[in-house]
Write a structure and sequence with these properties.
- The chain has about 500 residues and is α+β, with helices and mostly antiparallel strands.
- Among the domains are: about 20-165, no CATH class; about 350-500, 2-Layer Sandwich (Heat Shock Protein 90).
- About 55% of the residues lie in helices and about 20% in strands.
- It has 12 helices and 15 strands.
- The radius of gyration is 53 Å and the shape is rod-shaped.
Length: about 500
């Protein structure tokens, strides 16, 4: 399978995994929304049940008050009959009985008047009212709730008994009306965050509302629109009061629940936008990195070939001069030609899996230093610390030599062409350890994370490919390790390479 087929397969795999993750995320979010909706509906049902129970209690209370009111009316009628009997009955025993009935009335306010409204007698009036002579004005208005009872004391001669609800009944009724008002307000406010509208018996006139925007509800069109939405969603809760009349409670799902229902779609949109932006940035970054790598490879090729070519051209010029040492020139040109062959071999191995053989690492280090030493600035000093015996390890000679060259060139740049490069090799168990140390300016902690990245460089004219190639050769081809062992500002840097001695290491 070639690299393009693998790349396509990986893209397909990642796309399928991404879709599965998105589907799982949306499914899980939908379940959360459903649970939230179920919980809210449960709370709404509990709230509605509580409203029903309280409404039933209030209706029962109102019926009780209605019964009290009927009893008071009967008491007033009884009093009227008693007054009538007082006027027509001459039996003293009956008279005493009737007077006791009138005296025992301690609650119902009554006024007995003649046909012209003159007050003849009164009971249980408020302070200040019992001194009035005629039933007029505000007093008459208070006693006009119920039709007066006529008392015929002589043929064609009538007195009239006026009465109203007892003071205790009036106070209790006021408390009940206040309780109904408070109940309606609590229904509107304490509705489990559910928008609520309470209407009168016409189902059009809005009495109260809760959990709705006050500024928007001031607009009658908006208010009626909300009312219609609630009518479509849920059946109203009916409240039937004796005095107040019928009222209807309309409600709908909360705004939070409606927003939660849209959350999966918003989540999906955000995910796709994020994936699109990430893909775009990844493509731009990958293209930029590829461009840097291609430019770096081109410059590295030119640099690799440039050194031996320059040397060959110099020796060719010397050969044209009289008295030139032809033998020495031939030897040096031969070295440079061999160098060009090695460079060709190095680049031919990039992108393919090179063969690893048991290689004399000691010899490679010596040959690499011997080749670079006359071609580097004179103020660069090389210190070689190797074991007395040759060290053998699994390696590809041309590629490993390339790694050493890159480390040496990096060290020379870090020292500004003046300092010491120390190469030290040790053996440990089944590994060979090579340390390349310079006396340069060092690498900061932040830069240490990126020095092996393709295209990363701190040099104005660098292309950031040397250390990246070194890491690829050691890690991917040799299955070894390369890392910064130690680096201090102004004291230099030590790179460490770890190679296996054999396949079983």
């Amino acid at each position: 399978m070639d690299i393009y087929t693998k790349k396509k397969a990986w893209k397909t795999f990642l796309f399928v995994m991404g879709m599965l993750l998105i589907a799982a995320s949306i499914f899980y979010t939908n379940r959360l929304v459903s649970k939230f909706a179920s919980s809210e509906r449960k709370n709404v049902r509990l709230w509605a049940d509580a409203v029903h129970r309280r409404a039933e209690l209030m209706q029962y209370t109102e019926k009780f008050f209605g019964q009290l009111q009927e009893q008071e009316q009967k008491k007033a009628e009884l009093l009227a009959k008693v007054y009538n009997r007082l006027l027509v009955d001459n039996n003293s025993q009956d008279l005493t009985f009737y007077l006791n009935i009138i005296h025992d009335n301690k609650t119902i306010p009554v006024i007995l008047t003649d046909a012209h409204g003159k007050i003849l007698n009164s009971l249980n009036l408020k302070e200040g009212q019992d001194t009035l002579t005629y039933l007029t004005g505000k007093l008459r208005e208070e006693f006009s709730v119920y039709k007066p009872i006529g008392v015929e004391y002589a043929k064609g001669q009538w007195n009239y008994l006026y009465y109203k609800n007892s003071n205790l009944f009036t106070q209790l009724k006021k408390v009940l009306n206040d309780y109904i008002t408070i109940f309606m307000e609590e229904v509107a406010l304490n509705s489990s965050s559910v928008p609520v509208i309470i209407t009168d018996s016409t189902r059009k006139n809005i009495l109260l509302y809760g959990n709705l925007n006050e500024a928007k509800m001031a607009d009658s069109l908006f208010a009626q629109q909300k009312l219609m939405e609630m009518k479509d969603e849920n059946d109203p809760i009916l409240l039937d009061f004796i005095d107040v009349g019928k009222a209807y409670i309309y409600y709908k799902d909360s705004e939070l629940l409606n927003k939660m229902r849209l959350f999966p779609l918003a989540q999906l949109l955000i995910i796709f936008v994020f994936i699109g932006i990430a893909y775009l940035l990844f493509s731009l970054s990958r293209n930029a990195e590829q461009n840097r790598v291609w430019a770096g490879m081109a410059r590295e090729t030119a640099h690799q070939i440039g050194t031996p070519l320059s040397s060959i051209m110099a020796w060719m010029e010397l050969l044209k001069m009289d008295g030139a040492d032809h033998k020495q020139a031939a030897e040096e040109i031969e070295k440079d030609v061999a160098r060009l062959e090695m460079i060709t071999e190095r680049f031919s191995k990039i992108g393919s899996v090179p063969s690893l053989e048991l290689t004399n690492i000691t010899d490679i280090i010596h040959r690499t230093v011997d080749y670079l030493k006359p071609r580097t600035p004179r103020k660069i000093e090389y210190v070689i610390k190797l074991p007395k015996q040759d060290v053998i390890a699994l390696a590809n000679g041309p590629l490993f030599s390339w790694v050493l060259e890159n480390l040496f060139k990096n060290a020379i740049d870090a020292m500004d062409a003046k300092g010491t490069i120390t190469v030290e090799m040790t053996e440990e168990d089944n590994n060979v350890i090579i340390d390349v140390k310079d006396t340069g300016k060092g690498i900061s902690k932040t830069e240490q994370r990126d020095v092996f990245s393709p295209g990363y460089t701190t040099k104005k004219r660098g292309w950031g490919l040397g250390l990246s190639l070194a890491k690829r050769i050691i890690k991917e081809y040799h299955k070894g390790k390369i890392f910064i062992k130690q680096s201090s500002s102004g004291k230099g840097t030590t790179f460490r390479i770890v190679l296996k001695k054999n396949d079983n290491a």
